[in-house]
Amino acid sequence: MNRLARFLTQLLRKPASASDHGRRATVEAIGHLPQAERQLGYSFGNPDLLHQALLHRSFHQQAQDTSLSNERMEFLGDAILNLIVAEYLYAHFPGAHEGELTKIRSRLVNKRALTIYAHSIDLARSVQMSHSAAQSVGKGIQTILADTFEAVIAAIYLDGGYGPTRAFIERQIVGALRAGSVATDDDNYKSMLLEHVQARGMGTPRYTINREEGPDHDRTFIVDVFVNNERLGTGVGKNKKEAEQAAAGEALRSMA
């Protein structure tokens, strides 16, 4: 019997005081672990740690399960992430002073960057949450993914130690930097796109609001950018300027 099967067997033998609904929901959640391990590129010796990391508090409430949510692991993962990113920047940016390193690190560990890392490993397919949380849009679901990513970091650290955790984090950072989905400087993507298309006689980029989501006090804007009536990029931001910059950045990557 493999480790996952043993864990499922133990879970099904929980005392009768645990609700049947909660137990079934938890077993269903555990069934996602092999897929999650493949997405992470890491195999857990203790699958309970991964299960814990993927368990959003809304699922805990829905399933009436006695397990804790991933919030404590998120706290630990945040601290580990900051340490490893600081170590990475110290080694790879030897000419940068303290202020520059701090600025770069903030761009690599903020919620937007964490959401990008989470999407790159398709974490949304594995996180366990309530139906209403899964249907949330804009900032809500992005925050859930960012927090879960930090919890996963803690799970890897608790299971395998510092080395595998550093390798996992560096894979996400290097991959995102190479893809251009996160940046370490103040690139003005709108200006870069304008110069790029005009140098090729392609006219002027046109930005249109695709839709707006969320309440009035916390709007999320989704903007498309068109060149010669062809949509080349879509960006999301908390204001139109931020969304247009993100759309321009995606357009530049699509034209590379």
Overall shape: it is globular
- Kindly report the spatial arrangement of strands forming the biggest sheet: 1-2-3
* CATH level-4 homologous superfamily of the largest domain: Ribonuclease III domain
Low-confidence stretches: 11-29
- The name CATH uses for the topology of the largest domain is Ribonuclease iii, N-terminal Endonuclease Domain, Chain A
What's the architecture of the largest domain in CATH terms?
Orthogonal Bundle
Overall average residue pLDDT:
80
- Overall helicity: 55-70%
Distinct helical segment count: 13
Give the biggest beta sheet. Answer: 3 strands, antiparallel
SS-based class? mainly alpha
Would you kindly provide a written description of the structure presented here, covering whatever features stand out?
The longest helix has 22 residues, at 71-92. This protein has 13 helices and 3 strands, in the order H-H-H-H-H-H-H-H-H-H-H-H-E-E-E-H. The chain has helices spanning 3-12, 20-30, 33-40, 47-53, 57-63, 71-92, 98-109, 111-120, 131-134, 139-160, 162-179, 189-199, 240-255; strands at residues 206-213, 220-227, 230-237. It is mainly α and 256 residues long. A hairpin with a 2-residue loop joins strand 2 and strand 3. Helix 4 packs antiparallel against helix 10 (139-160) and helix 6 crosses helix 7. It has a 3-stranded antiparallel sheet. The protein starts with a helix and ends with a helix. The chain folds into 2 domains: 3-179, Ribonuclease iii, N-terminal Endonuclease Domain, Chain A (Orthogonal Bundle); 189-255, 2-Layer Sandwich (Double Stranded RNA Binding Domain), CATH 3.30.160.20. Mean pLDDT is 80; it is low at 11-29. It is globular and about 55 Å long.
